[in-house]
């Protein structure tokens, strides 16, 4: 079975540009999560969706960040305008149901974002 | 607040020797617990999960974890380390009332030849 698919794997762009990260969750999974990982702060949950509806976006750092899930098989995380401090690895994960019911999250390989 | 504590930020072992990575969690009636591994430039891969069916949980690549409710611990072990085990390991707890995961700080496992 295909796992969580993220694209692009690497993105290098200049400050001020718009960045769009993409994620295809595992088919049939009801939950989708976006994380950011940096050396300084470790793994941070940015936002998560249940059945395509955003449930908790309290981790989104500021209004420059937005996420959408137009259907069950696709989600985007957008940064506009991008800043050097946004440089990080961004992970998407999906799960069948919530983690409190012993259901693990399955992670993609991430997008390594560098803002110059 | 729910929390997970990994007691060692860095563990170094020699190849062929046992591995012990320690994890304590905040108490829950029936916790959802996981261990994930992250190799360089990769996403997190599930090693094993606690399902309450057994206190000793077997995972992939020879790893095991033992759930001890009285000690609120979920330590990860492997009898014999392999060079390919060198990675970052995360002990993770599923939140009992949201869809979120609660991550430990991570333990870097170094395996020396």
Give a description of the structure.
The complex is a heterodimer of chains A (116) and B (113). By secondary structure, chain A is mostly beta strands. Chain A is 0% helix and 53% strand. Chain A contains no helices and 11 strands. In chain A, strands 2, 4, 5, 6, 9, 10 and 11 form a 7-stranded mixed beta sheet that branches. A 4-stranded antiparallel beta sheet of chain A has the order 1-3-8-7, with no helix packed on it. Chain A starts with a strand and ends with a strand. With 113 residues, chain B is mostly beta strands. In chain B, the strands form 3 sheets. In chain B, strands 2, 5, 6, 10, 11 and 12 form a 6-stranded mixed beta sheet that branches. Chain B has a 4-stranded antiparallel beta sheet with strand order 3-9-8-7, with no helix packed on it. Chain B has a two-stranded antiparallel sheet with strand order 1-4. Chain B is globular. The A-B interface holds A 4, 31, 33, 42-43, 45, 48, 50, 55-56, 91, 93, 95, 98-110, 112 and B 32, 34, 36, 41-46, 49-52, 90, 92, 94-101, 103, 105-106.
Tag the structure with descriptive keywords.
heterodimer; A: 116 residues; mainly beta; seven-stranded mixed β-sheet; four-stranded antiparallel β-sheet; 0% helix; globular; B: 113 residues; six-stranded mixed β-sheet; 12 strands; 52% strand
Give a short overview:
The complex is a heterodimer of chains A (116) and B (113). With 116 residues, chain A is mainly β.
Record the SSE blueprint:
The complex is a heterodimer of chains A (116) and B (113).
Chain A: E1 5-7, E2 10-13, E3 19-24, E4 31-38, E5 42-50, E6 53-56, E7 65-71, E8 74-79, E9 88-95, E10 106-107, E11 111-115
Parallel strand pairs in A: 2-11
Antiparallel strand pairs in A: 1-3, 3-8, 4-5, 4-9, 5-6, 7-8, 9-10, 9-11
Chain B: E1 4-6, E2 10-14, E3 19-21, E4 23-25, E5 32-38, E6 44-50, E7 56-58, E8 64-68, E9 73-78, E10 87-94, E11 101-103, E12 107-112
Parallel strand pairs in B: 2-12
Antiparallel strand pairs in B: 1-4, 3-9, 5-6, 5-10, 7-8, 8-9, 10-11, 10-12
């Amino acid at each position: 079975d295909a796992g969580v698919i993220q694209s692009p794997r690497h993105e290098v762009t200049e400050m001020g540009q718009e960045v769009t990260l993409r994620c295809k969750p595992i088919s049939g999974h009801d939950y989708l999560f976006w994380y950011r990982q940096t050396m300084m702060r470790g793994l941070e949950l940015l936002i998560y969706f249940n059945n395509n509806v955003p449930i908790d976006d309290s981790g989104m750092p500021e209004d420059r960040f937005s996420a959408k899930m137009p259907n069950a098989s696709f989600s985007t995380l957008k940064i506009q305008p991008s800043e050097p401090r946004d440089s990080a690895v961004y992970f998407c994960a999906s799960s069948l149901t919530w983690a409190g019911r012993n259901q693990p999250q399955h992670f993609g390989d991430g997008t390594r974002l560098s803002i110059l | 607040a729910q929390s997970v504590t990994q007691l060692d930020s860095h563990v170094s072992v020699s190849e062929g020797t046992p591995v012990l990575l320690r994890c304590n969690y905040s108490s829950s009636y029936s916790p959802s617990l996981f261990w994930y591994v992250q190799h360089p430039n990769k996403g997190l891969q599930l090693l094993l999960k606690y399902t309450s069916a057994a206190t000793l949980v077997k995972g992939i690549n020879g790893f095991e974890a033992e759930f001890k409710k009285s000690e609120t611990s979920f330590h990860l072990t492997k009898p014999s380390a392999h060079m390919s085990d060198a990675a970052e390991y995360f002990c993770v707890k599923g939140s009992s009332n949201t869809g979120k995961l609660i991550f430990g700080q991570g333990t870097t496992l170094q395996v020396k030849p």
